[in-house]
TrEMBL record:
PROSITE patterns referenced in this protein's UniProt entry, alphabetically: UBIQUITIN_2 (PS50053)
InterPro entries referenced in this protein's UniProt entry, alphabetically: MUB, Ubiquitin-like_dom, Ubiquitin-like_domsf, UBL3-like, UBL3-like_ubiquitin_dom
Domain of life: Eukaryota
Gene source species: Hibiscus sabdariffa
Protein's UniProt name: Membrane-anchored ubiquitin-fold protein
Localisation per UniProt entry: Cell membrane
Length: 119
């Protein structure tokens, strides 16, 4: 098979143990493209739903996969399992709310030049 044309069978496990987007993917597919597919197939009955690819992290073999890398670049171990299906974990990490950012700025203003808290 030509390089980049190798197929990998994947499924993605979300926070409640549900598996989604079980399919075969090209090893040349990027992590960002996978995340888009996961968002498109996200179950509508879940209380937490990702809004963008930046809300998701894909984890394989203890490593968080980078959006700009392909599956092959991410060193996905394919073909080593008897069943041939690789399960990746999907972690939701929504964008930080502005209120938390504003609070951090307020806390930073309380610090003087020696990084001591002024009460």
């Amino acid at each position: 098979m030509a390089e980049g044309k190798e197929l990998i069978e994947l499924k993605f496990r979300i926070y409640d143990g549900t598996d989604i987007a079980h399919s075969t993917y090209a090893s040349s597919m990027t992590v960002a493209s996978l995340k888009q597919k996961i968002i498109a197939e996200w179950p509508q009955d879940k209380t937490v739903t990702p809004k963008s690819i930046n809300d998701l992290k894909l984890i394989h073999a203890g490593k968080v996969l980078e959006n700009n890398k392909s599956l092959a670049d991410s060193m996905i171990t394919f073909g080593e399992l008897p069943a041939g299906v690789i399960t990746m974990h999907v972690v939701m990490q929504p964008a930080i709310a502005k209120n938390k950012t504003e609070k951090r700025k307020d806390d930073m203003q309380k610090l003087n030049s020696c990084r001591c808290v002024i009460l």
